[in-house]
Amino acid sequence: MILAAGANGGPGLQLLLVLGGALFLGTVGARVLRWLRFPQVLGYILIGLVLGESGFAWITSHMIERLSPFNIFALGVIGFMIGGELHRDAFKRFGRQFIIILIAEGVAAFLVVGALAGVVTYLIKPDVQLATAVGLLLGAISAATAPAATIRVLREYKTRGALTQTVFAIVALDDGLALVLFGIASSIAARLLHVSTGGKELTMIAGLLKTGQELLGGVALGAAAGVGLNWLLRRRRDHDRALTYTIGTLALVIGVSARLGFDTILASMALGVMITNLARRRSGSTFEMVERFAPPIYVLFFVLVGAHLHIGAMPTVLWILAGVYVVARSGGKMLGANLGGRLASAPAVVRKYLGMCLFCQGGVAIGLAWMASGRFRDVMLFGDVNLGVAIMTIITATTFIVELVGPPFVKHAAHKSGEAGLDVTEEDLMVSYTVADMVDRSAPSFRRGDPVAVILRTIADTDAETYPVVDGEGKLVGIISLAHLKQSFGAEGLTAWLVAFDLMEPADDTVTETTPLADAVEQMKLEHLDCLPVLSDEADGRFVGVLELRRIDRILSQEILRRRQLAEVST
Fold this sequence. Notes:
Blueprint lengths: L1 H6 L3 H25 L4 H12 L9 H6 L1 H16 L4 H37 L3 H15 L4 H10 L5 H31 L3 E2 L2 E2 L2 H32 L3 H22 L3 H15 L1 H14 L1 H14 L7 H28 L4 H6 L9 H13 L4 E3 L2 E2 H30 L9 H6 L14 E2 L4 H10 L4 E5 L5 E6 H7 L11 H4 L7 E2 L4 H11 L3 E5 L7 E6 H22 L1
Parallel strand pairs: 5-6, 8-9
Antiparallel strand pairs: 1-2, 3-4, 6-7, 9-10
C-alpha cells in the first residue's frame, strides 16, 4: 500500500522520504554525539525530537502511528538479541543472584515511585482513592527497564564481565516483572475507581489471569518457535538463507504474539534463549548475522522514540508528577539494585554500578501507559485531563528524559566497573593500533656490504623469510628473501664474492610507523605477503623493523585472552 501510494507521489512516497532522512540524519547525529564522547543513542533521540512535532514536525503522529508495526518489530529484534545473551551456564551459576536482584530493584522502584507519586497527587487533589490509583499505576510502570538503549551502549563500548552479564539478565526479565506488577496494580486501581469494561467491573482475578496469559503465552510461543528454527537451521546448512529463516521466524513470532495478545518482547526473548542454548556453536553466527542486520532498525526505532515526544503541551501539574517519577524511579532502582546485590552476595561492581544501568525506559513502559490510557480514560484527574491521558503523557515525557540521562550513566558504569573494552574481537583491537605498536624492532637486517658467510649464519639462527638490507645511514635499500637467495647461488665459484647488495631485490612494499594497523594488514593480504619492512616515515626512509602477520595474530590473541580473563575474574 505504501509503495502503491508512493508511485503516484502520494503519502507513501513522503513516508519513504522521511524514513530515509531519519536514517541519514540519525546516523549523522549519532556520529556527532560520539565525537563529543556521548553514547550514540542520544543522537538518534535528539534527531527524532528535532524531526518530530516538538521540532519541525516532519515526522507527524500520523506517520508514527502508521509505523507502529515497525516499532513492534524493532522491540522484537531487541528482545531476541537479549535472549541470545542468556546462556544456560550463566543461570546455573548466577540464577539465584539474578532473581533476588530482579525482585529487589523492581519492587523498590514500585514502592518508592508509588508512595511519592501518590502523596504528590493527594496534595494536589485530596482524593485518597485517586491518589492511590495514580501511585499504583506509575509505580508498576516504573519497574520496566528499556533494554534497547542500555544494551546498545554496552555493545558500543564492548563490555564484558559480571556487571554486563547481570544487566543483560535484569533488563530482559524486568519487562516480565513490570507486566505482573501492572496487571495487579491496574486491577486494584480499577476496583478503587470503579472502572468497568463492557459493562462488567474488572476483578483482580481477571487481571491476574490476563497477565498470566500474556507472559506464559509469549514464553511458550517463543520457545516452540525456537525449537522449530533450531531444527531448520540444523537440517538446512545454508549460510546464505540462515538470516532469512531467522528474521522470518522472528517476524512470525512477533506477529502471532501481537495477534493473540501475548507479550512480544518476552516471546522474542524466549526465541533467542532457545536458539543460544540449543545450539551454542551454531547460534554465534546466527546472532552475528542479525546484529549486522539490526543497525538501521535501531536507528529508526530511537529516532521515532524521539519524534513521538510532544513535551510542549504538558500542563505544570503533570511536569511536577513527571519530575517526581524520574527522581523516585532512579532512586528506587539504585537502592533496590544495591540491596538486592548485597542479599545475593553479588560482586562489588554489581552492587555499585547496576542501578546506574537501569534508568532507561522505553517501549514496554509506553505500551503499559497506552494500556492505562485506554482503561482509565473516563477518570478525571486534574481539570479536563483524564487519568489515562495523564499517565500516557507522564511516561512519554519521562521516557525522553531518562533516555537522555540513562545512556551516559550506563557509559559511566561500564568504564568505572572496568568492563569496557573487555569483549573485543581482533578486528576491534586492530582499529585501535598503528604499525608502531606491532613492529618487531629487533628483526635482523643486513648492511649492503655484509658477506655471504654473515648472511648464512644469521639465517641459520632465525626463522624469518625476508631480511631487509640497509645502507650506512640505516635507510632501506632492498630485501633478501630465501627464495631469491637460492636462485643467486646457482653460479658456482662466485658465491664467496657475493655480498648483501648482490643478493637483494627492490623493496616495493613498505609501510610507515604511523600507518593504521588495519590498513597494513589489508595491504599484506592483498599482496600475499607475510611481512613488510617498516620505515620511520616516507621522506626519511629509515628502516626501524619488520611487521609480521604471525606476530600480529599472536599479540592480538594474547590481548583478547587477557581481557576475557579479566572479565572472568570480575565474576
